Amino acid sequence: MRKIEHIGIAVNDLEKSNQLFAKLLGKEHFKTEVVEGEAVETSFFQVGETKVELLQATNDSSAIAKYLTKKSEGVHHIAFDVEDINQEVARLKSEGFEILNEIPKEGADNKLVVFLHPKSTNGVLVELCQEKS
Ligand code: CO
């Protein structure tokens, strides 16, 4: 893994949170994007080499909606940039980590993504992401 690509934060109201994080970070988000497959609307802030990804559910069956009913707003996942996502999945699988989706899926921001089950990573939902070429 090469760097922390972004930190994902679950929010109830993307518009309000965009304003809050703009104040916090001293800059505006640079894009918003709906990921249909995940039923989320996202917005991104650039902070040095790393991004902050705000996530709001677009319907009640979204993983973010479920997360927010069980927990509160806050850090939802940490995403690591990888060069070759399939190779990294094979490596982590052989190390005993539980992979939530072995076949990479479409994520926001032009990425292929795979998630690891938090029960195998000390409670942290880990996302691997590879920039699509
Ligand atoms: Co993410």
Give a description of the structure.
This protein has helices at 14-25, 63-70, 85-94; strands at residues 3-10, 31-35, 40-47, 50-57, 74-81, 105-106, 111-116, 126-131. The protein is α+β, with helices and mostly antiparallel strands and 133 residues long. Strands 2-3-4-1-5-8-7-6 form an eight-stranded mixed beta sheet. Strand 6 and strand 7 form a beta hairpin. The longest helix is centred in the N-terminal third of the chain and has 12 residues, at 14-25. The two termini are 18 Å apart. The mean pLDDT is 96. It binds cobalt (II) ion. Cobalt (II) ion is lined by residues 6, 8, 53, 77, 79, 127.
Task: Give a brief outline of the structure.
The protein has 133 residues and is of the alpha+beta class. It contains three helices and eight strands; from the N terminus they run E-H-E-E-E-H-E-H-E-E-E.
Keywords:
eight-stranded mixed beta sheet, 38% strand, 133 residues, binds cobalt (II) ion, alpha+beta, 3 helices, single chain
Strand proportion, as a percent range, falls in 35-45%
Classification by helices and strands = alpha+beta
Helix content: 10-25%
| Mean pLDDT over the full residue set | 96
- Return Rg in Å: 14 Å
Low-confidence stretches: none
Number of E-state strands: 8
Q: Output the strand order for the largest sheet.
A: 2-3-4-1-5-8-7-6
Along the chain, the helix and strand elements come as EHEEEHEHEEE
Instruction: Give the CA-based shape.
Output: globular
Largest sheet: 8 strands, mixed
What small-molecule ligands were found?
A: cobalt (II) ion
Q: How far do the termini sit from each other? A: 18 Å
